Amino acid sequence: MGELRTRKRGKSWEYSFEGARIKGKRKSISKAGFRTKAEALAAGTKAKAEYDQAGIIFKTSEMSLSDYLDFWLDGNVKTNMTYNTYDAYASAVKLHIKPVLGNYKLSALSPASIQQWVDSLKVKGLSEQSIANYRGVLSGALKYAVYPCQFLRQNPCSYTRVPSVPVTQDQREHREYVCSSEAWSDIVDYFNGTCYYLPLMICYHTGMRIGECFGLDLQRDVDFRRHTISVNRQLQKEDKQWIYKNPKYDSFRKLKIGPTLEALLKSEITVMKMNRLRYGEYYTRTYVDNSLHLHCVPANQDVPPDYREVWPLTKENGEMLTTESIKYCTRIIKHKLGYTAFHPHSLRHTHGTILAENGASPKTIMERLGHKNIKVTMERYVYNTEKMQDEAVALFEAAIK
């Protein structure tokens, strides 16, 4: 390729260099408008380096892990994963990977250096799951460096392991918390009559993820004739704005619902229609645009013609409830009702466990919860409860008599 050149054009400076020939003809790559020759030279040097590497702004033999991780996050992760996943990965890279390994050359990373970093996370007091998650982020990044990028011949993370970290009783109880009938009764009694009652009931009766519950459109997703509720999207927050995304793992599904939840949904839709009339121009309506961003505006405000109205879970005045609403419920349940091990996914865990305790097949539970495989369902959401233990003993006793 040709050498980088700079020249003055009027009052500004321009850089240029010769690119690849197209149909035998030379193609010049240039950019003008720089105030000084130094600025033009610096920008041109960076542009030519990127061009020579076919869009990569570093030489693969010399790149640091830090630069590669930025390349991976801004390219593969941001393009192919949800905003929340990108945010979690970026946080893991910034807080746990770069400070220890970022200065090393990508090509110099060895299983020994990575294992040393993994072991250091245990020394810091991180849980086994957290260590596995951070190692998983690095492994995913390096796997991408092997294929399709071919920056590495093999993934050094493949030869490392996550150390065993003892789990305290409190940690285990929190992770595996399933609402007892007494706890659920207390929760229902406290929130009955509030706007938080219906989302809690939906999560308990369907096992939906929190984002899926608050992503419901009550006008389109509930089919009373077929007694189903459809999971078509999840609600997420990106750059302080609410947006609809596909369900996790693209797990679109129709869930059968029973008479209890169906009656609540019918009642809620009727009440919403009445509130629209009662509040009139002061009612808040929710619309989704073509980019799937949500807009909450007063009922008397005009909106662009490409906006489509949706009926999400709302407060009495139409104000949309969001995934942040469940945080308020969680604080009440933990600190006021005294169920300190409760967490936002407890209702999802509870739903799966109740189904397992009462004989539902693992495949049915998997499809209902929207998991990728049976292993996730059995390991994370269907716990070996006391009822299951009692049934196991009864089966054994019956077998030996």
Brief digest:
The chain has 401 residues and is an alpha+beta fold.
Task: Describe the protein in words.
- This is Site-specific integrase.
- Site-specific tyrosine recombinase, which acts by catalyzing the cutting and rejoining of the recombining DNA molecules.
- Belongs to the 'phage' integrase family.
- This protein has 401 residues and is α+β, with helices and mostly antiparallel strands.
- 48% of the residues lie in helices and 13% in strands.
- It is built from 15 helices and 11 strands.
- The strands form 4 sheets. It has a 3-stranded antiparallel beta sheet with strand order 1-2-3, covered by helices on one side. The protein has a 3-stranded antiparallel beta sheet with strand order 4-5-8, with no helix packed on it.
- Helix 2 runs antiparallel to helix 3.
- The longest helix has 21 residues.
- It is globular.
- The model has no long low-confidence stretch (mean pLDDT 90).
